Amino acid sequence: YKEVYIPMTYYSQGFGFYLGRIMGWNAYNMIALARLLNLLAYILLTYLEIRKMPFQKDLMVAIALIPISIFQGASLSADPVIHGFSFLFVASVMALATSKKPINLLRLVLPFLLLWNIVFAKPAYIALVLLFFAIPLRNFPKALQGIIRIGLVVGGSAVAAGVLYGFVSGA
Fold first, then answer.
1. Among 91, 124, 93, which residue's Cα sits nearest to residue 5?
2. DSSP letter for each residue of 89-110
3. Which is it for the CA torsion 85, 91, 95, 96, positive or negative?
4. CA atoms of 74 and 71, how far apart (whole Å)
5. Any idea which of 109-118, 123-132, 143-152 has the lowest mean pLDDT?
6. DSSP state, 157?
7. Angle formed by the axes of helices 11-22 and 79-97, to 10°?
8. Are the C-beta atoms of 85 and 125 separated by less than 8 Å?
9. pLDDT digits 0-9 by tens, 38-86
10. Which pLDDT score, from 0 to 100, does residue 1 have?
11. Could you tell me the sign of the dihedral formed by the alpha carbons of 8, 10, 12, 15, in that order?
């Protein structure tokens, strides 16, 4: 699993290389364009996260603007998109946790899709699944509360087992 990245994390920089090849640019200019588009993807995802975050927006802005985040946001790697997805995932879960109206399954689609992409891009981020514990069960309809409890216990156990396996196996 260590060599597998989902292609979605490379779309922005791949588009930069594609545009550079179409325009006949040299390698340096294509790399600069790819890095710029990666930074724009990071900025867009961070902007969406700040819009969605129900509280502590200034803290999330500070985290997104620390120098290492900006440096990685403009790098040629999967990290800008993964970090943007991670920020957006945190904001989505916090919005669900502070929601006053009941949560239906449709509102869970975005966090699950983001988590799916994050974990398949970097399996070490599996611990983000624990953020679902921040959502109170009373926010879910009565029919889903039992299913959610079972899912949280199984999911939490799977994360704990994965972390323990990583420590034991030295992976």
1. 124
2. HHHHHHHHHT-SSPPPGGGGHH
3. positive
4. 5
5. 143-152
6. H
7. 140
8. no
9. 999 999 999 999 999 999 999 999 999 999 999 999 999 989 999 999 9
10. 47
11. negative
First to last CA, the chain: 11
pLDDT of 37 above 90: yes
Comparing CA positions, the residue from 14, 12, 93 lying closest to residue 54 is 93
Helices (H), the chain: 11-22, 27-52, 57-64, 67-73, 79-97, 109-121, 142-169
Q: Are 164 and 127 in contact (CB under 8 A)?
A: no
d(CA 170, CA 73): 30
Distance CA 88, CA 48 (A): 7
What separation in angstroms does the CA of 139 have from each of 14, 77, 93, 145?
A: 41, 38, 12, 9
